[in-house]
Amino acid sequence: MMQQLYCPNCGTLNPPNILFCVKCGHPLARKVCPNCGFQVPANSVHCPNCGYPFPRRSLASYRYTLPSSSTYIHSSLRPTGSLTSDLKLVFRMAFKRRPPIFTPSQAVYQRLPYATLARSSRYFHYALLAFISGVALAFLVSASTNLVVLFLPAFIAALIPALLYLYWIKRVDRYEPEPMWLIALAFGWGAASTILAIIPNEILIPLLGGWMGTAAFVEEPLKILGVYLISASPWLRGELNDHLDGLLYGAAAGLGFGFIENILYIARGLALGAPLIIPLRVLTMGMHMFCSGLIGWWMGYLKVNAIEIRWSTITPALITAIVVHATWNTMGSLGVVGLLILLVMGPYLVFRVHRMAMDALVDEYYWGFAHGYAPVETVS
């Protein structure tokens, strides 16, 4: 009676009741009933063939099924504190496949204080205020350039893809879902951070000969500042448990920024009779999601490795995001050739966000998040 599954990706023989390959992390669509050997859907709670109930196993029992050589985070995957080596690690994590992380620091099991949960409506109000501030900025800029009549269609054209992107990435976070009020706070911060970016951009871009890549040096630190404050706050940092959480909050901040920015660009493009500006700006929003999401991902990854989140430790991810952002802006100023590159680069960056999220979800599975050990807060 066969009770183990071969991974269709790497061929590794996996223990029964495992949803992801212990070697490569590839999803196993089915598992085997230990009673009758019947293959059943991976999320089944009992065998449809013999009725055998699949018991709730302890976190330790899941770890015992893992290869002993892969119990801990491999040394090549750990941040070292060296800027050069950590830059290489960030690049590897962002653009290449990696094995699962089987054992994290205990920081990933932290929870929010109940006092914070009781004040969650207050944080949502902060998010709403930040969102309105960003929208007000976009409206004032539109009014100053005689584009008020195009503000509403530009607002709708910018908001819909932002919400769709956010919904798409939020759906991946299913084992330990992040609260919507905190995601809204990150999104609102991203929207409001456009206010802080205006003056530095207006000063630095002309100083560097009009190079649009300069904006990346201003915008990336400002976008991620809100997520950094979440990670540093004694009332909120318990919710940023790992790299999937950081990716979600960083992506939300990037989407908030891209939303306000897109209102201005889309209104300007529509005024010039160029409706194709809309799909291009949708791709640009994906770039913002990737860049800020990568920095947030790295913040969570530092926590997984029990490393303090400071500006000095997140610098490798910040530099990587700035390089990607500056490259994007530079391509956008190169005419048709640059546009063709962006048409390939944009979907690829969105795919990498998806890949990082799915790999992080596999990690959470091995930490017991899928089996009742996720630090999900409830108010009694």
Strand order of the largest sheet: 1-2
Q: Please state the CA-atom Rg, rounded to the nearest Å.
A: 22 Å
How many H/I helices?
Answer: 11
| Weakly predicted, low-confidence segments | 58-71
Number of domains: 2
Main sheet attributes: strand count, strand direction, barrel closure: 2 strands, antiparallel
Query: What's the overall geometry?
Result: globular
Order of helices and strands: EEEEHHHHHHHHHHH
Average pLDDT, to the nearest integer? 87
- What is the helix content? 55-70%
Helix/strand structural class? mainly alpha
What is the count of β-strands? 4
Span from first to last CA?
46 Å
Q: What is the strand content?
A: under 5%
Word description of this protein:
The chain has 380 residues and is mostly helical. The chain has two domains: 1-55, no CATH class; 77-371, no CATH class. Helices cover 60% and strands 3% of the residues. The chain is built from eleven helices and four strands. The chain has helices at 59-64, 83-95, 114-118, 120-144, 151-172, 180-207, 215-232, 243-271, 277-304, 311-332, 335-366; strands at residues 5-6, 13-14, 30-32, 39-41. Strands 1-2 form a two-stranded antiparallel sheet. A two-stranded antiparallel ribbon has the order 3-4. A hairpin with a 6-residue loop joins strand 3 and strand 4 (39-41). Helix 5 packs antiparallel against helix 8. The longest helix has 32 residues, at 335-366. The chain is globular. It starts with a strand and ends in a 14-residue tail after the last helix.
